[in-house]
Amino acid sequence: MNALEKQIAELEKREKTLKDKKQLLLNKQKKQSRKDDTRRKILIGAWMIEQKGLGAIVKKMNDLGAISERDRELFLLEPKKEKIHLENDVSAVSFSAGQDADPAKQDTVFTRT
User: CA of 30: how far to CAs of 19, 21, 25, 44, 53, in Å?
Assistant: First the structure.
């Protein structure tokens, strides 16, 4: 290996070391940013609870649908009941008794039109 090849190898090694160091610093910065964001949310939430009371805030959030199903237990709320939507549109259903018009002789088939 000549002198230029050695220099290139050393520079490539240094470049990798610097890239690794940069990634560590970026990860550290991102981690601190998440910690700061969490702390802001906790402080704002604590202030809101102090001002309005937890019950009033939970009621308002529940009324707005802002509490997820998995968080309802945390706030001592009952699970949401599933809403069942039934369509009663008879005009969209056609009845066919096949070739035989007598329903007693033929199974009735329901199809959507």
Answer: 16, 14, 9, 21, 33
Domain locations along the chain: 3-112
| Confidence (pLDDT) at 30 | 98
Alpha-carbon span 80 to 67, nearest angstrom: 10
Instruction: Answer whether 0.70 is exceeded by the pTM.
Output: no
Q: What is the mean pLDDT of each run of 10 residues along the chain (113 residues)?
A: 94 98 98 98 96 94 94 91 62 50 52 51
72, with CB counted inside 10 A (0-12, 13-18, 19+), is middle
- Predicted local confidence at residue 95, as pLDDT: 47
Q: What angle do CA 71, 74, 75 make, to 5 degrees?
A: 95
For 72, the token pair is 């309802």
